[in-house]
Structure formats: C-alpha cells, structure tokens
Specification:
The protein is of the alpha+beta class and 417 residues long. Among the domains are: 57 residues, Phosphorylase Kinase, domain 1, CATH 3.30.200; 206 residues, Transferase(Phosphotransferase) domain 1 (Transferase(Phosphotransferase), domain 1), CATH 1.10.510.10. It is built from twelve helices and twelve strands. A hairpin with a 4-residue loop joins strand 2 and strand 3. The two termini are 28 Å apart. The C terminus is likely disordered.
C-alpha cells in the first residue's frame, strides 16, 4: 500500500534534505496537484518542524510566502505539507554562470526587500538571509520570489506592545557566515538591520560573482568565522561596491545608520533601486533569456557547412566556474535540480553564459535591449510603462517560462525548504 499523509496526500520519492528533515515529492490524492512534504523524526534531538510550521501559519497570506497545506504527526514523523516551488536563486545564479545582470539583481532586490519587510511586519527576524532561502515560483508564479526556511527565525518584539527585545552582546553567530552582518560577527543581538545588511551582501554576491571573504582557509569552523569577520570588517563599503552604482553603497550606509528608522531605510533603498529600472521592470530575468536562447538553438534547422553565420546566439560554451558552496556551518546545503523536483525530464545539463559583459550593464541599462512586455502575469504588477505594446515574442517567452521549470543545474537532486 502506498504511503499517505493526512489521508489526503500520496508520498512520493525523496527529492532532498533540508536543515532539519527530508523533503519528498507528494501528490494531492483528490486533485493530483504536486506538493512538497517535509518529514522530521519525532525523536530528533532538537525538533524544528513544529516551530517552522507555526511561523508559516503566522506569515500565511503574504505575497511570496509558501502555503502550508497540512501539518501533523504520521507514525514516527512530524510532517509539513507545503506548496511545491521552483529553483532557488543560488540554483539560478549557477545556471547563469555565477553572475547576474544589474537589471535582474534590481528586480530581485525589489521583491526580496518586500519579503523581508513583510516578515519584519509580523514581528520576526529571518536571521538566515541567503540565496538558497529565496525560491522562484512555478507556472504563472514563475516570476515571483518566495522566502523560505524559518528554522532560525526569531521574534524581535512583542506582537501586542511592539516592545523590542533588549540589546545583548556575546551572542553566537546565527545564520550563514558569508552573508552575516558585521554586528552578527561581533556577537551583537540581531535586529531588522542585520537581515537588510545580509540582503546587501547577497545582492553584491550576485553582481560581483563572489564576495571578498569567500574561499578563506582555516583549521576549525571558529577560526574560519573569525577570518571571515576580519576580512569583512576590513573591506570598506566603497571597496565592496566599487564599479557598481553608488546606490548599493548607500544601501549599506543606510543599514548601518542608527539615525534612520527601519521604514526610512526600506523606502529610501527601494526608491534608489527602482530609479534604475524605471520602465524596464518586465520580469524578464537573465535565466529567462538564457533558456529562451537555448530553446531557439535547439529548435533551429541544421546549417550546411558553407552557410553564413546569422545573428550571434549570445551563448558561450558551458563553463564550470562554480565555487565551493558556503561555509562549514551552513544549515545543510540542500538545493534542487528542478527537473527532479517537478518529476519531469530535464533539459541539457550544460550551463551557458550570456556573451555580453554584464559588469557594465548599469551604464547601458536603458539601451541594452528592446523593451519586452511581461511574459507572464504577476502577483505584484508594477512599474508598467504607459503605451508599451506586447512584444511579438510574448508567446515564445511564455513557453520559455514553462521551460524554466525543467532546468537542470548540475547539482544533487536536493531541495532546501
């Protein structure tokens, strides 16, 4: 007899491992809809799934928050059934040869700031902001960013009085060292500013391809964290953001300023980033274009040997420039090959690079490509430009978005929830 959960979901194959449990593909018996099912042994030393389920319940209804379908105990396991989501931003970063264009980073920043702001509005800090904990949706939600993994989340104020937790020092590092704020390294109790500073490091990671404190060697985890902290403190904001729009340096200064209210930091930062996008907020991300180019190449008729070259495909040979993932103390580097996640056969496992230089895209953001209309509907419609007509390639981009769901990432078939 096939295993079932809550007498409503059919338990399928294992598709990954999270920080506190294992992830399985599930199916709603009545609707045949696919879901993600997270299992945690009830005898585990430090159970987390109940706490995480409670957090998701508190956050339910927010844009970019996965829906909880069911939570309970089945046999020896705590079980959490949730929406099935797409690849993480770390997956997509690797797919794009570990560098994202300014336009893509700004579109992501807008949504990521919104997600963090919403979590904060519910009186919680996330405390582990990193690319693995932001996933894209599927189908008509493929342009929407979701925030996941609240195992380290913590209440920072009383939900009724809004009284903040007291200032404390000598706290152990919580989260991922690569993206941790300077204050977190110094052992200071985390606040909303620290989530926002971590987001800044994530954005620079996407733009630069790496951060100055990656790849440091040390004998122990503690020594490695100390080295990361020293390098991070020694790297000025200006040095970190050199070569990129000044708004990124301003963002870090806002996060570290004690004179600005959190609401001021968020609104000022959002305004700065949106200035660059103006009418280009079309939800066409780098991976959308790469997948589209790949689909065009695969469907193109074969050329005869003497045939002249047409337009450049914009693709370079696949490169394996992936750096080692994260610090030793990261919570289970679990990621997903979305072809396995979705139960579909994936496409080519090769990763291609856009041939144009994306380091200089901010200098040509307004002229680098023709305007395209949004390929799919969005739950966050905004930044529409008046008089913009649908592109003749809209249908192609819509089919491309469906293809995004079956991307293959050259990584273990694991997902991190």
């Amino acid at each position: 007899m096939e295993p079932r959960v809550g007498n409503k979901f059919r338990l399928g194959r294992k598709i990954g491992s999270g920080s506190f449990g294992e992830i399985y593909l599930g199916t709603n018996i009545q609707t045949n809809e696919e879901v993600a099912i997270k299992l945690e042994n009830v005898k585990t030393k430090h159970p987390q799934l109940l706490y995480e389920a409670k957090l998701y319940r508190i956050l339910q209804g927010g844009t970019g928050i996965p829906n909880v379908r069911w939570f309970g105990v089945e046999g020896d396991y705590n079980v959490l059934v949730m929406d099935l989501l797409g690849p993480s931003l770390e997956d997509l970063f690797n797919f794009c040869s570990r560098k994202l264009s300014l336009k893509t980073v700004l579109m992501l920043a807008d949504q990521m700031i919104n997600r963090i702001e919403f979590v904060h509005s519910k009186s919680f800090l996330h405390r582990d902001i990193k690319p693995d904990n932001f996933l894209m949706g599927l189908g008509r939600r493929a342009n929407q960013v979701y925030i996941i993994d609240f195992g380290l989340a913590k209440k920072y104020r009383d939900t009724t009085t809004h009284q903040h937790i007291p200032y404390r020092e000598n706290k152990n590092l919580t989260g991922t060292a690569r993206y941790a704020s300077v204050n977190t390294h110094l052992g200071i109790e985390q606040s909303r500013r620290d989530d926002l500073e971590s987001l800044g490091y994530v954005l620079m990671y996407f733009l630069r391809g790496s951060l100055p404190w990656q790849g440091l060697k040390a004998g122990t985890k503690k020594q490695k964290y100390e080295k990361i902290s020293e390098r991070k403190v020694a790297t000025s904001i200006e040095a970190l953001c050199r070569g990129y729009p000044s708004e990124f340096a301003s963002y870090f200064h806002y996060c570290r300023s004690l004179r600005l209210m959190i609401s001021q930091i968020i609104h000022t930062s959002r305004d700065c980033f949106e200035t660059f996008l103006s009418a280009r907020f079309d939800y066409v991300f780098d991976w959308t274009i790469l997948k589209y180019q790949q689909s065009q190449i695969s469907s193109a008729p074969p050329r005869t040997p003497g045939q002249g070259a047409g337009q450049s495909s914009g693709l370079a040979p696949a490169v394996d420039d992936r750096q080692s993932g994260g610090e030793e103390g990261r919570k289970g580097d679990a990621v997903l090959s979305s072809s396995t996640f979705l139960g579909r056969s994936g496409g080519s496992s090769r990763r291609a690079a856009v041939s144009s230089s994306r380091d200089t895209e901010f200098a040509k953001l307004s002229t680098s490509a023709p305007q395209r209309s949004s390929p799919i509907g969005s739950a966050e419609p905004k930044h529409s430009s008046s008089g913009r007509h649908p592109s003749s390639n809209t249908k192609n981009y819509e089919s491309t978005l469906k293809g995004i769901e079956s991307l293959s990432f050259d990584k273990d078939d694991r997902i991190h929830y």
